[in-house]
Design a protein that fits this description.
The protein is an alpha/beta fold. 30% of the residues lie in helices and 12% in strands. α4 crosses α5. The longest helix has 20 residues.
């Protein structure tokens, strides 16, 4: 008997020493459901907002939450639209809830949209790169909430690229919907930490900043029980290598693509295919004019990429797809520019390598919007080395890291 008692005790200690599974905030219903009870709720979400395998909205409706309106970002509320495809308003067939597209005619809820809303909810899986548009949608949503004095609850999710910070920091002269704030390409924050930063640093509209400050500093305010509530993930740290349970958007189908995205999305601003229309977007890239000794591939029409760049053309380039752990080892926790430099050197007509806008203005180049400046393009053209380019990032990266530290909700990687 003593043997079995000792065995059970040892087993209990073994379990206690194991890492607990990471839980996105949406799973922690006991924490936030009381905040929604008896309220008319507006939800900003897409297909990644799940509890287990069930959509958040479906789960909340079953629990008696009164959802009066839903909002959808790029790719739509159910995540099926192509990248950049404008989405119209509609009634969600599964729930009967009206869905307002915030990636079509407008980017934020209007006062009219919010008139039958008591509290707003936000839940979307981010991938931790500046040009992934969900953080831009988040900013617009926050501004609408604060400006219209609507309480906002943000359900946090782990960042699959949250274990490093790297890349050029955006110069606000190059601000666009694929980069709205002075942050590096990979910023190492969860979406809730990022939200706290843009509010805390006063990077919102003047009216939203004013209202946020009022709620944050006012004592004994009776306007609302809360103004901005973050629900944290459980058991997450910035050392975590969190693998997503489903693809966050049509052209990020697996973890290899998600890891490479911060390094290879640059090719969207060049004449090369970035791999849309292949099985591994952003892990495969190339062009018909590159050496035929490179990896051959042909972009075709697929769900999420109906008209990919260089459609049906035989291309030659790189295939970096494969096991996620091997990809991590290859990247070494850095934004890679070596493939960009190699592609430029190998491409025969360098004048056409970067897609040129009609105006010819540096701020209009899509590549510069992705990079966040015109310096990287100039460095590539000038033949600068990867080491020289990386060194030029260091001062602004150091300044950003100091800001970032103030808003972390979870233990850092350094």
């Amino acid at each position: 008997m003593k043997f079995f008692v000792a065995l059970i005790a040892c087993f209990s200690l073994f379990l206690a020493g194991q890492a607990q599974p990471i839980q996105p905030a949406a799973y922690r219903t006991e924490v936030y459901l009381p905040l929604l009870k008896g309220k008319r709720v507006g939800v900003f979400a897409n297909h990644t907002a799940t509890i287990g395998k069930t959509h958040l909205v479906d789960s909340l409706q079953k629990r008696g939450v009164n959802i009066t309106i839903a909002f959808g970002p790029e790719h739509g509320f159910r995540g099926t639209a192509d990248a950049g495809e404008k989405v119209d308003n509609y009634i969600d067939a599964a729930t009967g809830i009206p869905v307002i597209s915030l990636y079509g005619k407008k980017r934020r809820p209007s006062a009219e949209d919010l008139k039958n809303v008591d509290v707003l909810l936000f839940d979307i899986q981010d991938v931790g790169t500046r040009y992934y548009t969900f953080i831009s949608s988040l900013q617009e949503y926050m501004e609408a909430a604060f400006e219209n004095k609507k309480p906002l609850i943000l359900l946090d999710r782990p960042n699959p690229n949250g274990f490093f910070v790297d890349g050029p920091v955006l110069d606000t002269a190059y601000k666009s919907f694929i980069g709205m704030q002075p942050i590096p390409i990979v910023y190492g924050m969860t979406i809730a930490e990022y939200a706290m930063m843009i509010a805390g640093e006063k990077w919102l509209t003047a009216k939203a900043n004013e209202q946020y400050d009022y709620y944050r500093t006012a004592k004994n305010s009776t306007d609302t029980a809360f103004h901005f509530q973050v629900i944290k993930c459980a058991n997450y740290t910035h050392k975590s290598k969190y693998e997503l349970p489903l693809k966050p958007s049509p052209n990020l189908p697996d973890m290899a693509s998600i890891y490479w995205y911060g390094s290879t999305c640059f090719f969207e601003g060049t004449i090369l295919s970035e791999g849309r229309g292949t099985e591994h977007p952003f892990a495969i890239f190339g062009h018909p004019s590159l050496p035929k000794t490179l990896k051959p591939f042909t972009p075709i029409s697929r769900d999420g990429a109906k008209e990919p760049k260089l459609k049906d053309q035989l291309c030659y380039g790189w295939d970096l797809s494969g096991d996620a752990k091997k990809v991590l080892a290859t990247m070494g926790g850095k934004v890679q520019v070596k493939y960009l430099l190699e592609a430029y050197q190998l491409y025969p007509d360098k004048e056409k390598f970067f897609l040129k806008p009609t105006s010819g203005k540096p701020t209009a180049y899509f590549f510069n919007k992705l990079a966040g400046n015109s310096e990287l393009m100039a460095q590539v053209i000038a033949g600068k080395s990867e080491a020289e380019i990386r060194k030029s990032w260091e001062p602004k990266l150091a300044a950003f890291k100091a800001i970032r530290k103030k808003y972390l909700l979870y233990p850092d990687f350094e």
